[in-house]
Design brief:
Elements lengths: L2 E7 L6 E6 L2 E5 L5 H10 L9 E3 L5 H4 L2 H8 L3 E3 L1 H4 L2 H7 L7 E3 L6 E3 L2 E7 L8 E7 L2 E6 L7 H7 L4 E5 L4 H5 L6 H8 L7 H13 L4 E5 L8 H14 L9 E4 L8 E4 L1
Parallel strand pairs: 3-4, 4-5, 5-6, 10-11, 11-12, 12-13
Antiparallel strand pairs: 1-2, 1-14, 2-3, 7-8, 8-9, 9-10
Helix pairs in contact: 9-10
């Protein structure tokens, strides 16, 4: 059987990723309006009522904006850790979730949703208890790892061996430093240990993951103001080449997008 993977949207305006294996279909985050997410799923010929779970990485609005609407409209369970459920922003934006649809996971424990194994991975970001996710289906695995200021050894170990990784390539540090619209405190937050990965940090992480077997990567969560798809791809590719890899041959790189559905990948 095959694991399907598709970024529906990735960026500070909204994040959602679709995975499916056999009869199990899940969303990682639902950070756009219900209507936009319904339209994105329609492009994949997926009915929203067939989604088995919405998994929340953390409580920032670009990851949860449509979760409550979809849950109530289509009776979809929403999974988050208790610290995330307890935040005021989660209660305000997601709203009331019927008790039977409110699911709590332990960030240190794997669990199952249908035929898909889910491994939460605690990460460093300015949220209550943020996580990345790795998914296991048959002999394959894929991961969604964005919104993290650094990638410590325990995160690398948890991601190692993933067949495909959606990894944050958020900003170019020089663009950020020279962005006159951003106050200094915001710049320091983005570049800090609880902020976001730069293009270069993304490349360095991918080099380590390649050494552990990853052969496909999607660059995600690009900043609208401090990055471009062309710059992210160029920086990541050049750093990998500098370290001896051949992007397109040794490792396949593609972009995700902040305004449209990305490529649909099949792992088997």
């Amino acid at each position: 059987m095959k694991l399907e993977f598709c970024s529906l949207n990735s960026g500070s305006n909204g994040n959602a990723t679709y995975l499916a294996y056999r009869d199990t279909r899940v969303l990682v985050d639902a950070g756009l309006t219900g209507r936009v997410l319904e339209g994105a799923l329609a492009q994949l010929s997926v009915l929203p009522e067939t989604i088995d779970a919405i998994l929340i990485t953390h409580e920032h609005s670009d990851h949860i904006a449509g979760a409550g609407v979809l849950s109530r409209r289509y009776r979809i369970p929403v999974y988050a850790n208790e610290a995330t459920w307890q935040t005021a922003v989660m209660r305000r934006i997601v709203g009331e979730v019927p008790p039977g649809l409110r699911r709590v996971f332990d960030s240190e424990a794997e669990f199952l949703i249908g035929g898909i194994g889910v491994q939460p991975i605690p990460i460093s970001h300015d949220a209550a208890e943020p996580v990345a996710f790795r998914f296991f289906a048959g002999r394959t695995s894929a991961a969604v790892a964005t919104d993290m200021g650094r990638v410590p050894r325990q995160v690398l170990r948890a991601l190692s061996g993933s067949d495909l990784v959606l990894l944050e390539s958020n900003h170019d540090p020089e663009m950020l430093r020279h962005n006159a619209r951003y106050p200094e405190a915001l710049k320091q937050r983005i570049m800090g240990a609880r902020g976001h990965l730069s293009n270069l940090s993304c490349a360095q992480t991918l080099m380590e993951l390649y050494q552990q077997g990853t052969r496909q990567a999607l660059l995600g969560h690009l900043s609208r103001d401090n990055n471009t798809p062309e710059l992210a791809m160029h920086t990541v590719s050049e750093e990998l080449r500098r370290q001896g890899l051949r992007p397109g041959s040794d490792i396949h790189l593609e972009m995700t997008f902040r305004d449209r559905v990305g490529g649909r990948f099949t792992l088997e």
